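We treat protein structure as text, and this decision shapes the records that our systems exchange. We quote a single record here, exactly as it is kept in our systems:
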Amino acid sequence: MPSTKFAYREVLLAFVLLALLCTSLDANLRKNFQALETSYEQGKINEIASQISTLKPSSNEEKAFVLFLRAMVENKSSQVSSSYLQQVISNYPNTKYGQLSMLQQAKLFVLERRTGEAKTLLEKITSSQIPERYYWLAVCEDMVDRLASVISNAENYQRLQPKGEYLEESYYLIANAYLGQGKHESAVSTLNKLAAIRGYPTDAQYFHYLLGLSYHGAGNWQEALSNYQKGMQITRYSQIAYLIEDQLFELKSKYGARVDLGFLYPYQRLKILESVPAEEAEQQVVEIETPTVDAPLKLTGKPVSGLYLQTGRFGVEANARSIAHRIRSLKLPSGYYEDRGRKDVPWVTFSGPFKTVAEQDQALKILKDSQIDCFKTRH
């Protein structure tokens, strides 16, 4: 059975730099510093940026705090942010923000896949008030397939932070680790514990995919089919949906006629379009040039320039080809190419190029209406 790790990691790594950490660690800060700290904890980064230069730190705590804030303000540039964090770590390691800098720097290392350096920093955090370190340790261990350590660190995080920011992700880490160990029933049990928590899961499609995979491995094809079907009903055109589809066909090949995949090809009634006033139609529709029949579907490399929509990233070329064909059936330009730098999910699909932002917006609406996930990009 194919690995699912890249699907989880892709979703995980996409928001690492954007995460803001709120904590109750004690720091001896003067009143004006405390006010700025409150703004930071409330996520008011723009307000912080305009006030940093007015601060005159005197103690080590305050100096560490100012450098840390500079790193957070510059978090769109990992190189600049990392430089500030390294200064805090080197000069003020035992302060509140020295400890938090270790955590933030470790997260940057995770993003850059510098797993060993991330783990070294996380193990240097001594504050009991930073339980997040256990979650990121679990992530590091997951990246190097130390499965038992993934489970123990993720469970430590859940014990210390039962309502933490990464609670759902920690359950997925544990379930994937059990799958890697071949302990499918343990993976099922882990995911059912997550489902028993009020308000979870929030990523329903990935949850049903992973639960289906766990039942699949345990030999319970009925429950596997049920969860795969629930996942497909959420959306048919996401990367997870294509992974589910692969597993459905594997079930079908193994269990034959007992597996009914009729829900994949539902009968749809023809829709009768109601007339729209000409003025309204003019405002809503932008003409997009229809792709020529002989335009290549597979590119030899990444598009050089222009406005595009990225419509997916896949581990299997056939899936990329399929979504590109579907986009063309909507009369939109589309194609795919191989990103040789990503061995796990190398096939990138796109729609474009578009001549104007208005065309790009119109295509985005068409794809979203057709349940195809996408986002704007420029090459």
User: Anything to note?
Assistant: The first helix runs from residue 5 to 13. DSSP finds 17 helices and four strands in the chain. Confidence is low (pLDDT under 50) at residues 13-24, 267-276. The radius of gyration is 24 Å.
